[in-house]
Amino acid sequence: METKTTLDRALGVLAGGCDSPVRSGWGVSAPMFVQSGANGAYAFDEHGKRYIDYIMAYGPLLFGHTHPALVRGLDELVAGGFVWGCTHPEEIRLAERIRAYLPSMERMRFVSTGTEAVMSAIRVARAFTRRNLILKFAGNYHGHFDLALLNAGASAHTSDAKASGIPEGVMRDVVVARYNDLSSVDAFLADREAELAAIIVEPIVGNMGYVPPEPGFLEGLRERTKRCGALLIFDEVITWLRFGLHGAQARVGIVPDITTIGKIMGGGAPIAAFGGREEVMRVLAPAGSTFTGGTHGGNPFSIGMAHRVIDLLEAHPEYYAQMRSLAERLAAGIREIFRERDLPYAVVQTESIVDFKFRPGHPNRNYDDAVAADKSRYAEYYKKMLARAILLPPSQNEVMFVSTAHTARDIDETLEAIRASL
Ligand SMILES: Cc1ncc(COP(=O)(O)O)c(C=O)c1O
Which is nearest to 243 in space by CA: 213, 268, 198? Predict the structure, then answer.
């Protein structure tokens, strides 16, 4: 009898063999990486082979896979069960802790995923302004609900909106501008300012490679939303805690009206949140007439994990310097290899994010740059690195994440693999 491979079994029962298309390997024309375990900075494939992991679950694993402070004593954390369906003191305390770091989140609500957080934030913005139009940016990824998917970055493949199941009605009320380009924002707003409910933006982008905002860009969005009576939503699902406890908003010095957070905050457990000015969040029921809610929102398990994450960062302020120094070592090493080989690619690094694209010239500034990078070259590189036991994201729109679990030795092994692969 023929034995089925894991891949065959996956394809036989999971749609497309996976729960998130990027995992299928279609972005790099490679077979799906099937993972059987993880430890610290390492992922293990189904045969038990060890890989240095730079996917880090697409962002959440700031401390690697199995930081003892996060995985120990889970029985105590769930002594009272996983989900209650009632508000509880630890949930209130978590919101207070978050607000102390992100004062713009005067009132907030917990949900389970970044998708839910952004979807809810958009509804609140529309209810508050009593307008429909949303302006977003090509190459920014905000989750997998209808509006968010138009021209989304990361590894979303929804260029044909109709075939993607996004209703025409939704498309009428969203415009997609170019990141780092205020003139493209102005062109869209020219005759629709009065319809604008909100501009949503990743203040620092991690979904079309790593793209920081250019001076004046976010300030320009803040000024335009104020002028139009619209709201500014910062999607900090990747950036909160990646760029410190005060998030990207403190780094860029701009206060948004609504913020969404997720990923790292749960230490691997599913939890996210959205929140903003008190008068804005008042549109939510029971005070207002806008509904959001969920069975798992604020469940004591995820809330407890989020406390552990903040505890850990408060106890170890040195973690950020540690990750930055490893990321700098990695970026400097890659730059050196490019110099040796005369390769014309720019390497970017901020805090624990390292990124380069197979496109000569300046680093990505917007989605046009991201799509101009050489996909087949990246696919070849991905496969060669995998063969050398380095697990990179299977899509050129993602970035490399360094964690507190990575070591200088891991970085040096990675550089050797890069040198050999290129
Ligand atoms: C900036 C940003 N917003 C929202 C999301 C959606 O979060 P989730 O995958 O938890 O639904 C993501 C996921 O990658 C993201 O990067």
Answer: 213
